[in-house]
Every structure is written in C-alpha cells, then in structure tokens.
Amino acid sequence: MDNRPIGVFDSGLGGLTAVAEIMKLLPGEDIVYFGDTARVPYGTRSENTIMRYVREDIDFLKSFDIKAVIMACGTASSVSLPRIRKEYDIPIIGVVEPASRAAVEATKNGRIGIIGTSATVRSRSYEREIMSLCSGAKIFTAACPLFVPLVENGRCDPDDVVLYTMVEEYLAPIKAEGVDTLIMGCTHYPIIERAIAKYMGEKTALINPGLEAAGYLKQSIGAAQNASGGSCRFFVSDDRDGFSENASKFLGKSLCGEVELKTVGK
Ligand code: DGL
Fold first, then answer.
1. Which domains are present in the chain?
2. Ligand 1: residues within 6 Å at CB?
3. CB-based contacts of 206: which residues, under 8 Å, 6+ apart?
C-alpha cells in the first residue's frame, strides 16, 4: 500500500469541493492542500501565466513526496493538463475528463450547459471532451468571471441579492436553450450550487467537477485504506484567516490554527 499523501491544489477555496469528497470516499488518505490565494483568480490570466502558476503549485506539493496530484481547478486542468502530464513523473488528475463523462451519462436530451472561468471557456476543453464521448451533443457555454470573487468573499447564500443577480444574468442564455445538464466547470461553483440550482430548477442535473475527480481518484488508486492516515494539511499563499473562515463553513469543521502560509513562485 502506498501511504504517501495526495496533493490537491486550486487558486483558492474551489479545490475544497474535491477535498470534501476525497475525505468521504477515501477517509484514510492523507491530503496536502494548496490554495494559491495570493494569485486568485487564475481564470482571467493568460495561458503562459497559468502554466507558470501550475508548475509552481505542483513543485511545492511535490516537496511532500506525494503519490498523485489532483488539479482541482477547472482553469488549470483546461489550460495545462496535457502538457503538464508530460513534465512530471507522478499521476496528475484533472477535472475536465471526469466531469465531462458524468455529464454525458446524466443527460437525457443531449443538451449540455458548461459554465466556467473565461480561460476555461476559451480553451473549449469540456466541449472537446464531451464531443469525443458523444458527438451528437449540443453544447452551450458561458463564462462567469464574477463567481470566483463572490465565493472567495463568502457571498454564497442563494438569497444573496448580488450573487443571485449574477446567477440570473450568466445562466439565462443557457437555461433558454433547454439544457438538462449543467457542468459547473470551475471548482468554485459547487460552493454556490444552491443558488445555481434555485435558478436552473430541480430537473437540471448539476455536475460537480471536484466530486467527479475524487471518484476518478478512488477508481485509480483503489479503496485501500491507510490505517494511520486521514490527515489534511492546508497551505495558502495569502490571507490565512479569510481562507480558514470560509473553508470552515464549507467543510463543516473548524480549521482554526491549521492553515499554514506558503509563498510560491517569485
Ligand atoms: N477554481 C478554479 C477553477 O476551477 C479557479 C478559478 C479562478 O481562480 O479563476 O477554474
């Protein structure tokens, strides 16, 4: 059995959607989480900048002798994954493939919506993956750049007027197309899933990419339990207190004193 930890990263809180699921599916695994809060958001950056951030994030996680990386970030997975996989000697799991597969399995009418950051939507990563699995699918996309700052600022309540106004504005064109499945293509978005579900209605299947990536991880490493494991170390590159407060709310447990500061890159 390989008792080394799993490394998980995102630009901020979003990757916790994968962590929450790994804790449920693989409770014996040790996790090292890095949220690059000094440089969030990634989704408005250029390809070169995102590539640099991703390499620096993985290099930091590799210093813990991890056995695999979960790129719990739709933007990083969309922009960097095929190239990054060639550069490292450990398994790197992204969110695009597992989420696309889940969407194709969920849809009944073949009409699939995808929301994500500007970089993710521009990359067309989810579209390519879905079309390779189901060439007849009809796909409708929308970039939602204000969702990440809202989540990072704790504005997640479905009754929050600012959040719900943005949900309506971003999702109206996709809803009008009659999609029955929506990929929340940025890992921050499941944190505002209740607001998205309230607007889309209960008949729309919402796909959570962090959750799907955790399921994929379980399949690939097996359900072997590390009896002494189950710990999680959290690192951020800025604002430990803000992260700790929002992460505690999301994970439903106090992280007080457990979040460590780490600057990566220059
Ligand atoms: N949670 C990330 C994603 O899945 C990053 C969003 C951002 O930093 O813009 O795309």
1. 6-94+211-261 (3.40.50.1860), 96-209 (3.40.50.1860)
2. 10-11, 14, 40-43, 73-75, 117, 120, 148, 186-188
3. 182, 184, 190, 193, 196, 197, 200
